[in-house]
Amino acid sequence: MTDIPAESAQQRVAAVPARLTALQTRIGSAAAGAGRDPSAVRLLLAAKTMPVDAVRAAVRAGAGLIGENRVSELVDHAAALADLGPELHVIGHLQSNKVNAAVSWAHCVESVDSAPLAQRLSRRCEAVGRNLDVMVQVNVSGEPTKFGVDPAEATELAITVAALPRLRLVGLMTVGANTPGGTVVRSGYARLRELRDAVVGQVPSATELSMGMSGDLEHAIAEGATIVRVGTAVFGARAPA
Ligand SMILES: *Cc1c(COP(=O)(O)O)cnc(C)c1O
Asked: 171: closest CA among 154, 153, 196, 146?
């Protein structure tokens, strides 16, 4: 999708409502195809690099859940969207020096991938007197460029995280394999579901499966995704990094 030219800011904002409607139809079809209730799949819009106007247009058109890769954008969007009150999730790698800002603005951190990061989040939540929903990010594809704990260590980390004060483990998250054809992608999503099923036996709150993006959300929904994270399909192509 990177060969699609980035749109003008105006074109992007104008296109958001119709693209959101089309995406909701697509999610509904995927859920129906998988024999699932469409309302069991929540849409998270991945806002990375998007200007505030485009994100506002999406929230006004009904998107209530926004995902942020960068804490700087989380802080900007939280301020600019405060009147609309969307739920904000951190979905990118969280550096330890950004923990305080994340705890100030995020409803959920989906990208917890180590015990030290979870401990920092827990301590900060204690200091400011709040509870925080978290997910453990798992690298199901094993691709070295991806963040997330190794699947073999995921259950242990999940149980460690769930035991920390102020953190509520709500599920598992992954970024799917970056391969053409659906077989590898889908088996990675099946793996995350199996891990979630194992964790939920010990941590009953950990029901969420955050997986699937613009290019592969049908596979994720077929394997039980409860949150799909979509950027390009609603906001258009991002400028090359
Ligand atoms: C960018 C991003 C998405 C959305 O990707 P699209 O292909 O634009 O839909 C989902 N999850 C994470 C973690 C991302 O960084």
From this structure: 196
CB distance 232 to ligand 1 below 6 Å: yes
Q: Which residues contact 214 (CB under 8 A, 6 or more apart)?
A: 1, 230, 231, 232, 233
Ligand 1 contacts CB of residue 234 (under 6 A): no
Q: To 5 degrees, how large is the angle CA 106–CA 110–CA 116?
A: 95
Quick check: CB of 231 below 6 Å from ligand 1? Answer: yes
Q: What pLDDT score was predicted for residue 1?
A: 47
Residue 155 CB neighbours (<10 A):
20
CA of 232 to the centre of ligand 1 (A): 8
- Residue 19, both tokens: 């693209």
pLDDT in tens, 102-160: 999 999 999 999 999 999 999 999 999 999 999 999 999 999 999 999 999 999 999 99
The ligand 1 atom at the shortest distance from the C-alpha of residue 238 is 8
- Residue 15: closest CA among 50, 57, 60, 62: 57
Residue 26 C-beta-side C-alpha neighbours within 13 Å: 20
Name the residue with the closest Cα to ligand 1, atom 2.
Answer: 46
Residue 18 neighbours by CB under 8 Å, 6+ apart? none
